[in-house]
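Duplicate of #3305? Posting structure anyway:
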């Protein structure tokens, strides 16, 4: 899929490939939303909402373990690709966003 096709399908550029080290996550702001993007050790990109559904912790300041993003406040974990809860205390998932790498651009579909 070309960049033009991605833009037409709702993808927006949110970072450059070198902005995130493998095995980490970071906070990004895009179109009024705070998101957590991450790059797994296997080279897969993912994005979820940045705010923990348990008590508002900043997920992009947490750690990435395989595909699980750990909230730095109480250790709740969310899947980087689906947003589902992997470990309590949160019980509600976060939203997940389709993420692609196009050349050097990390793009997500909002």
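Output from current build:
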């Amino acid at each position: 899929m070309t960049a033009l096709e991605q833009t037409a399908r709702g993808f927006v550029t949110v970072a450059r490939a070198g902005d995130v080290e493998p095995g980490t996550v970071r906070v990004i702001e895009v179109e009024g939303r705070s998101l957590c993007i991450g790059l797994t050790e296997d080279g897969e990109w993912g994005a979820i909402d940045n705010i923990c559904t348990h008590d508002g912790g900043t997920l992009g300041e947490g750690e990435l373990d395989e595909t699980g993003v750990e909230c730095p406040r109480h250790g709740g974990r969310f899947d980087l690709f689906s947003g589902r809860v992997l470990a309590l205390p949160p019980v509600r998932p976060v939203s997940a966003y389709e993420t692609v790498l196009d050349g050097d651009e990390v793009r997500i579909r909002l």
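Confirmed duplicate; merging threads. Residues 27 and 39 are 12 Å apart (CA to CA). The radius of gyration is 13 Å.
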